[in-house]
Every structure is written in structure tokens, then in C-alpha cells.
Design brief:
CATH topology of one domain in chain B: Amidase signature (AS) enzymes
Number of strands of chain A: 2
Helix content of chain B: 25-40%
Oligomer: heterodimer
CATH class of one domain in chain A: Mainly Alpha
Strand content of chain B: 5-15%
Structural class of chain A: mainly alpha
Strand content of chain A: under 5%
Helix content of chain A: 25-40%
Number of helices of chain B: 15
CATH architecture of one domain in chain A: Orthogonal Bundle
Distance between the termini of chain A: 44 Å
Strand order of the largest sheet of chain B: 1-3-2-4-6-5-10-11-9-7-8
CATH superfamily of one domain in chain B: Amidase signature (AS) domain
CATH architecture of one domain in chain B: Alpha-Beta Complex
CATH class of one domain in chain B: Alpha Beta
Order of helices and strands of chain A: HHHEE
Shape of chain A: flat
Structural class of chain B: alpha/beta
CATH topology of one domain in chain A: Histone, subunit A
Number of helices of chain A: 3
Radius of gyration of chain B: 21 Å
Largest interface: A-B, 49 and 70 residues
Chain lengths: 95, 485
């Protein structure tokens, strides 16, 4: 299977990865090779087979709805790129 | 002392032949001398390690020591350790100081073990050669031109070069077993859900599993005793009783049924690796085992299925790296979308971006059924193959990797070739089974180690360790160390 340049551009945008035309072309070639490998799956008849999402078919545990973690905002924000007054700063999104 | 087993080290510490501070300093000195060559460690912090060692000496003096108290352990840099730089091999986390401990780190701390440092790895554990690390390649101690395997390449190199007493690794598609094989050490990936993933930076959550990498099966058993255990903070942690993984080590192997999957000895396996594995099987016959021919018919589909499912999960897991709460943020950007895109593009390396792209594609509108759902269905067929096989045998054996360690740069341009080097290990992760690798000789050149893979049924780690230990009592491959070490 061969991917188009437009396919790769679309995926890069969805994945929030900035790529220049050279990188897009390199990715197109390599991804096409990988999808050729993956294409082997398509010939397999999986009618009636239930998808296996997980190694152990267990249901999710539930726990009591109570607070278990204390507030560690200062600790966690000490590693943030930009904070002010306890808030994470990002470029303005609303005029 | 560098070749001591963990129990010998524990005895030396208990008998006060050496203190934990002295032992830790011994390894720190070795790291200072040799790490510039191997690049096995990304971070050492002598102050923290020696403080832990002094505390361990206190426990030893007061008679409150456990089997690993005072023993220096190298931690893969995928585990968050409070106060330690935790990079996951990525520029994205190059300056990330973890604000909390992973469950695995907590367990070692509780046991009084020493965190000797954080080991190099493929970026976000995506790689089979350790070459995708942002911090440079790791050298294989058996041949400095060769890769150590990956993604736990730093851990494998550190154990083989005797730069730690033992190490931790993680295994999503073979990342403990393949580097263990390529560096001539012993490593085990336990049953999925046995070791908590809390604080272990996520790659593919339904496949990721941590485990020990050490000089012997016996050492791995002692490490697993510490690492395993239920943890409610990991939603896939299995609520099981703690078990003693050393309990079966000394059982004889008489009557053991070993399954040999014919698909593991077919085209693609190099002759020297195949020969060493057959010799190991012959040794097992001598130890009383019987050999059963089995088939895992969907083996060839494991790599394609994995390269749909693992990137899909990775693309989702790695969406958290947005340059907002932690990790790399670009210096310049125009708006929020531009900030996300630039931060991620600069912070992630080529292989990680490639896998995020694959994952995003297979999960995108219109392709989900053809790729993701189809892969999940075949995953069940692959798991069923193992279930069927275990009706006829107790353990499955075969090669860990199709060849001995390849050279640095050899597979650099072709991701598909790299992916195929995990052909024998990946199916085990898809099924969630435990798998291990033990050294069983050397390849054609006589210089590079070969790994024997042992695959067990769910929760059968104690038996696998017994099977490996009995071989290690009868042979001495696991005691060999590289020249100059």
C-alpha cells in the first residue's frame, strides 16, 4: 500500500506534528513500507472472532469515590514550562 | 565481587565483609570509569545513592535487612523516581525531574535496595537497538561496534559490563528479552498485570510490562519477588497473592515437556543461533525433559499486528506531551496549535514520530475497522495458538532473536528490518504471557552471545525460573563476561 503526500500531511496534522516537505516525503516512503508489512493482516479471515483488547479479559475495577491524593499543585507545577499564579500559561486562544 | 550473585552479595553485606556504602561506591567508580565507553547510564546521582546505602547499612546492622537490602540496582530511565531526572530516552523529557516514585521504585526502596542510576534506552522504549535514544547509542560490552539490543539496552549493557548488581527493564515487544539475549544476560518479562505500570512511562499500555535483567535466573527470581504485587493505581494490576519466585528453583526437570514451535526454526533464523538453541534443547533432554513438536501458526502475523496495536496505543499515550504541563516546549510559536506542533516535533525523535503517525493513521476515520479492529481479532488468534500449544507442553522454547547483535547503524535506514528482529518475542506480549531469555552460547564468530527464549503459561514464572536455573546449574554460559570487564 502506498500513501499519498496528502495522506501523510493529514496524519501529521491530526498528530500535531509539524513536518517540512522533506520530512513528509521521507515519512511517506517509510510509512508505505510499514503498511506493506501490515497489509499481510488483511488476508486473514477473522469472521466471528471477538477483538482482544487486552491480555487479561478483566473488567475495570471500581473503587470508592473518595479523595486519595493530596493537593500537590506547587510540586507538579515546578516542572511546567510556564506557570503564573497557579495556572499553566499557553498562548491566548480567545480574543 | 562483581560476579557475585545477589544472594552472595546479600551474604557478604550481612557478614559485614563489605558495607552497602562501599559496594555502592565500588559501582559508582566503575560507572565513572566505564560509562563514557558504554553510555549505559543517563543519570547517576551519587548523593542520593550513597544516602540510600547509608540507610541500608543501618537496616543491615539492626538485623532488619531483606534479600536485596543494600544492593545497587540500575533502574531503566522509564521509571519515575522522585527527585531523579527521568528522560525515557527523549529530548521531550530531557529536563524532567520526576515528582513521584513509580510503584517499582517504591518496591525497591521498601526493600532497602539502592537506586544506582537511570539506564539508557530507546526513546519512549521504541526501538530494538537502543539507537533511537536522544542521548546516543549504547555499546554492547561484547563488541563495542555492536548494538546492545533494545529498548532496555542500557540495562543489558550495564549488567553485562558489571556496572550494577542487577537492573530493571520493560518489555512491550521484546525489550527485556532481546537485549538480554544480545548482551548475554538473563531477563524475564512476567505475565501482563503482574508488575504495576504506575509511574512507568507508557508506550503501549496493553503490552507494557516491567521485569528484571540480571546475571542469572536465581537473581531474576529475587528481583521479581520485590517488583511484583498488586497496586490499585494501575487499573490492569492483577489482584493476586504475593508469591515467592524462588520456591521451585531446585526442582528437578524430570518429565518437563518442552514445546518447540516449528515456526521459530524456519526461514529468517541465522544458522549459528539455531545451532546454539538446539544444543540447549539437547542439554534439557539430558536434564530429563521431553521434547514436543508444536505449531504457533499465526506467528508471522505477530509483527504486523503489533505494528498496528502498539503505535495506536502509543499515539494516544504520547498525546499528553503537549508542552503545557511538563516536558519540552518550543522557544518560539505563533499560537496554541503552533506551540503543540513545534514542541512535539522538536521533542520527539524520528522513530517516535513515525510510530505516532502509524497509530494516528490506523485509528483515523475510515481505517479503524480495517486496521485496528482486524489487528485485535488476530491478536486473539495469536493468543489462542499459545493456549492450544500449552495443552501439549509445559514451556515453549526457541530463539529470542533471529541473530546475534548486529552492528551500530546496520539497520538504521529501514524500520521494517528493525521491526522484524523482534519476530520471536512480540507474540508473547500480544498474548500477555511470561517470557524470558537466558544465555546459551555464542554465535559463529565465537564472540557474541546467543539467547534461548523460554515462554511459560500465564503466571508460570516460578516454573520458568526453575527451568532456567536448572540449565544454569548444568552449564556456565551465564557466568561468562566480556573481555576487559
Amino acid at each position: 500500500m502506498s500513501l499519498s503526500t496528502a495522506d501523510v500531511q493529514k496524519v501529521a496534522r491530526l498528530a500535531r506534528l509539524a513536518m517540512n516537505p522533506t520530512e513528509i516525503e521521507a515519512a511517506r516512503t517509510q510509512l508505505s513500507g510499514i503498511f506493506e508489512l501490515i497489509a499481510e493482516m488483511q488476508a486473514v479471515d477473522t469472521t466471528g472472532i471477538a477483538p482482544m483488547s487486552h491480555a487479561q479479559d478483566l473488567s475495570q475495577r471500581l473503587r470508592e469515590d473518595k479523595v486519595t491524593e493530596g493537593n500537590q499543585r506547587e510540586l507538579f507545577q515546578s516542572i511546567a514550562p510556564q506557570v503564573e499564579a497557579g495556572l499553566y500559561l499557553v498562548p491566548q486562544v480567545i480574543e | 565481587m562483581l560476579n557475585y550473585s545477589l544472594s552472595q552479595l546479600g551474604a557478604a553485606l550481612a557478614a559485614k565483609k563489605i558495607s552497602s556504602v562501599e559496594l555502592t561506591q565500588l559501582y559508582l567508580d566503575r560507572i565513572a570509569t566505564h560509562n563514557p565507553v558504554y553510555n549505559a547510564y543517563l543519570t547517576v546521582n551519587a548523593k542520593i545513592s550513597l544516602t540510600q546505602a547509608a540507610a541500608a547499612d543501618g537496616l543491615l546492622s539492626s538485623g532488619n535487612a531483606g534479600p536485596l537490602t543494600g544492593i545497587p540496582i540500575a533502574q531503566k530511565d522509564i521509571f519515575c523516581a522522585k527527585g531523579w531526572r527521568t528522560t525515557c530516552g527523549s529530548k521531550m523529557l530531557a529536563d524532567f525531574i520526576a515528582p513521584y516514585d513509580a510503584h517499582v521504585i517504591e518496591q525497591f526502596n521498601k526493600a532497602g535496595a539502592i537506586n544506582l542510576g537511570k539506564t539508557n534506552m530507546d526513546e519512549f522504549a521504541m526501538g530494538s537497538s537502543n539507537e533511537t535514544s536522544y542521548f546516543g547509542a549504547v555499546r554492547n560490552p561484547w563488541n563495542h561496534k555492536a548494538v546492545p539490543g533494545g529498548s532496555s539496552g542500557g540495562a543489558a549493557s550495564a549488567v553485562a559490563a558489571r556496572l550494577c548488581a542487577a537492573a530493571t527493564g520493560t518489555d512491550t515487544g521484546g525489550s527485556i528479552r532481546q537485549p538480554a539475549a544480545l548482551c548475554g544476560i538473563t531477563g524475564i518479562k512476567p505475565t501482563y498485570g503482574t508488575v504495576s505500570r504506575y509511574g512507568m512511562i507508557a508506550f503501549a499500555s496493553s503490552l507494557d510490562q516491567a521485569g528484571p535483567m540480571a546475571k542469572s535466573a536465581q537473581d531474576c527470581a529475587l528481583m521479581l519477588n520485590v517488583m511484583t504485587g498488586f497496586d490499585e493505581r494501575d487499573s490492569t494490576s492483577l489482584p493476586r497473592e504475593k508469591e515467592d519466585y524462588t520456591r521451585n528453583l531446585n526442582q528437578p526437570l524430570t518429565g518437563l515437556r518442552i514445546g518447540l514451535p516449528r515456526e521459530f526454526f524456519a526461514e529468517g533464523l541465522s544458522a549459528d543461533v539455531g545451532a546454539r538453541v538446539q544444543e540447549a534443547i539437547a542439554e534439557y533432554r539430558k536434564l530429563g525433559a521431553t521434547i514436543v513438536g508444536i505449531s504457533l501458526p499465526n506467528t508471522r502475523l505477530a509483527v504486523p499486528v503489533y505494528y498496528v496495536l502498539a503505535p495506536a496505543e502509543a499515539s494516544s499515550n504520547l498525546s499528553r506531551f503537549d508542552g503545557v504541563r511538563y516536558g519540552h516546549r518550543a522557544d518560539e510559536y505563533t499560537d496554541l496549535a503552533d506551540m503543540y506542533e513545534k514542541s512535539r516535533s522538536q521533542g520527539f525523535g524520528e522513530e517516535v514520530k513515525r510510530r505516532i503517525m502509524i497509530g494516528t493513521y490506523v485509528l483515523s476515520h475510515g481505517y479503524y475497522d480495517a486496521y485496528y479492529l482486524q489487528a485485535q481479532k488476530i491478536r486473539r488468534l495469536i493468543a489462542q495458538d499459545f493456549t492450544d500449544a500449552f495443552a501439549h507442553c509445559d514451556v515453549i522454547m526457541g530463539p529470542t532473536s533471529p541473530s546475534t547483535a548486529f552492528n551500530l547503524g546496520e539497520k538504521g535506514d529501514d524500520p521494517v528490518q528493525m521491526y522484524l528482529s523482534d519476530i520471536y518475542t512480540i507474540a508473547v506480549n500480544l498474548a500477555g504471557l511470561p517470557g524470558m531469555s537466558i544465555p546459551c552460547g555464542f554465535g559463529a564468530s565465537g564472540a557474541m552471545p546467543v539467547g534461548l527464549q523460554i515462554i511459560g503459561n500465564y503466571f508460570d514464572e516460578a516454573r520458568m525460573l526453575n527451568v532456567a536455573h536448572q540449565y544454569q546449574l548444568a552449564t556456565d554460559w551465564h557466568t561468562r563476561s566480556p573481555q576487559g570487564v
